[in-house]
Amino acid sequence: MNPRALAGIAALVGHYDVLFVDQFGVLHDGTAPYPGVRDALARLRDAGQRVVLLSNSGRPGPYNAGRLARLGLGPELYETIVTSGDTALALARSGEIPVRPGMRCLLIDSGGQDTAFCDALGLVVEAEPARADLVLIAGSRGDVVTEAEYRAMLAPLARRGARAVCTNPDRRMLVPGGTAFGAGRIAELYEEEGGTVDWIGKPHPAIYAHAARLCRVRAERVLCIGDSVEHDIAGARGFGADSALVRTGILADAAPAALRAAFVRHGVWPDYVLPGLVW
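Structure tokens predicted for TIGR01459 family HAD-type hydrolase:
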């Protein structure tokens, strides 16, 4: 049960065909890359190791690529980005998520009002909750909006039977100075009020299956790297891949006892523990 502690990712180069690497909490904290990350990505690339970024972002891959580039992590450092937003769009287009053009969609995000999902499917962005047919939970403003405010806004839609799609299952998110509740918690509130939620993103299986198809790789040849036991490590186990937990992000300050408690609580242990994504 005890994960193997490693000083850096160099020890695992060539052991796996593809590394599925989380974004927030592993590559950066939302404002800057973590120390050593750019060097590690460059060395992985130079060693011929495939790196695919697997992110619980409700926004599409190209948006995330732009944000990473502005942080100094350009597209030359990884193969591609697969997001939960991309996965949800693919599922909607295939009919696995029941949406239809013209539906009125209430968009809940981090404040940027990214309408790519709605635009691609012909949905109408609806600012008035009472008129919405669908709720897209893509982000959270949990650092400025309370759970009670979200609950009051969403409860009438849940009681009316409007379906919700959560494209970012993270229950906690990094914010300046700490963490706040994320989109996953908002989706939980919706379920608590009786609403139905389609969960897209880690730890749920669809994002892994989508990424594996795109990369033409089998689960047993993948190493998943992340900072969340609940999402990255549990998701890897469900997918059938090995996993590595980094001690940056939401568990950066967790004491050993708290870390063990998280493993027990979620019933999963990583195969490796790294101080960060460092060489």
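The CA atoms of residues 18 and 31 lie 27 Å apart.
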